[in-house]
Specification:
Bound molecules: guanosine-5'-triphosphate, magnesium ion
CATH topology of one domain: Rossmann fold
Structural class: alpha/beta
Strand order of the largest sheet: 5-4-1-6-7
Length: 379
């Protein structure tokens, strides 16, 4: 069935996850509070197993592992819905205190084995695992540090399966904690983002959830389109040409980047709704070099703090060394350089061969698979 296991990590990850389960439960006719099927179409059930586990009596459970270093986030979700299985809650004793080092080395590391045990149990219970989706912020300690740890372990244990991250990136408008650039720096790999005006987390989480629902529609419902986790989608009402215009409009991007200042490296669009098959049969995945400005902002923010060694003791006190920050900065700079050279028509990722814009979508899909990024930010 090509099942997907969801890992929701930290405060933001669990809030985004909860929003996602709300949206897709509704689409599949599953009652969110009780987990019981009340739908009216066999299509809602045909591929429901991609994300849900089911009992014979049509009682559904989210195939999700709810992870946090502090218990309160996950407990709240336990009260709100029976979709979540309490045996899949993995919580620690206290929050990682907005500190990557605590998520990676201490508080988060303490619950890693339990996360992996639960993940293995879920993986063993499915027919044919497609991959994992990880939901988290990279500004808090758990979402940045523990997620990095989990990803390292998943890549090692499940090298053939896809990792797809939905990431809340610290925003100049919504940042709460001064060390967010450090956490983001330390946990950043290549990310892809979209932007709109936000009124609050609930709004953001709902948009992320809708987008996740959109991306996974063709996995969850039968249809003429065939796509996997490696393909991304944006959707709304309108004619096909209006939709295409909206897709490429900077107003519809969910982070602070200007599409005009970059080059699209790949583009595919997936349309959902009543349209002719010829119109619908267009698949688009966007990966734009304009994203480099967002990475540059993260890099500049962390460099300004690191030059003054501001707040560094919170990290070195947990066993990290300044060199790790410098290495991470170099890595982020390399990502920015990659995007810069691709915008100038050179190769992406320093490979020899064809120029950036001429490469086939598969090349980038492979890159996405190894660096694992389908991402959103709170800008
Ligand atoms: N999109 C979104 N972002 C959120 C939400 N809650 C917090 N954030 C952002 O996430 C960052 C804080 O990360 P959290 O997820 O709360 O932190 P955590 O992973 O639980 O880590 P610790 O609390 O330090 O252990 C800040 O940048 C917030 O702006 C949410 O519900 N949705
Ligand atoms: Mg937290």
């Amino acid at each position: 069935m090509r099942e997907i296991v969801t890992l929701q990590i930290g405060g933001a990850g669990n809030a985004i996850g909860d929003s996602f389960w709300h949206v897709i439960s509704h689409e599949h006719g599953v009652d969110y509070p009780s987990g019981r099927f009340g739908g009216n179409s066999p299509l809602q059930l045909e591929r429901i197993n991609v994300f849900f586990n089911a009992t014979a009596s049509k009682r559904f459970y989210a195939r999700a592992i709810l992870i946090d270093t502090e218990a309160s986030t996950v407990q709240r979700l336990n009260f709100s819905s029976q979709l979540y299985r309490p045996e899949n809650f993995v919580v620690g004793l206290e929050s990682a205190g907005n500190n990557f080092a605590r998520g990676y080395h201490t508080d988060g590391a303490a619950i890693l084995e339990q996360v992996l045990d639960n993940t293995r149990r879920e993986v063993e219970s499915v027919d044919s695992l497609q991959g994992f989706q990880l939901l988290h912020s990279i500004a808090g300690g758990t979402g940045s540090g523990l997620t990095s740890l989990i990803m390292e372990a998943l890549v090692e244990k499940y090298p053939d399966n896809l990792l797809c991250n939905f990431v809340a990136i610290p925003s100049p408008n919504m940042s709460q904690v001064v060390v967010e650039p450090y956490n983001a720096l330390l946990s950043t790999s290549a990310l892809r983002n979209l932007k709109i005006k936000m009124s609050g987390y609930e709004h953001i989480n709902h948009i992320v959830a809708l987008t996740m629902s959109g991306i996974t529609t063709c996995l969850r419902f039968p249809g003429q389109l065939n796509a996997g986790l490696r393909k991304q989608q944006q959707f709304s009402k309108g004619t096909v040409s209006e939709l295409v215009q909206q897709i490429f409009s900077s107003n519809n991007i969910l982070c602070s980047i200007d599409l005009r200042k970059g080059k699209l490296l790949t583009a595919a669009g997936l349309f959902r709704g009543r349209m002719s098959p010829q119109e619908v049969d267009q698949l688009m995945t966007g990966n734009t070099s304009a994203i480099q400005s967002l990475f540059q902002r993260l890099l500049d923010g962390s460099m300004a703090m690191l030059r003054r060694k501001a707040h560094l003791h919170w990290y070195t006190g947990e066993g990290m060394e300044e060199q790790e920050f410098l290495d991470a900065q170099q890595e982020l700079q390399a990502i920015i350089d990659d995007y810069k050279s691709s915008a100038e028509g050179e190769n992406f990722g320093g490979d020899s061969g064809r120029g950036g814009i001429e490469r086939s979508p598969d090349d980038y899909e492979e890159k996405a698979a190894t660096s694992g990024h389908c991402s959103f930010c709170t800008d």
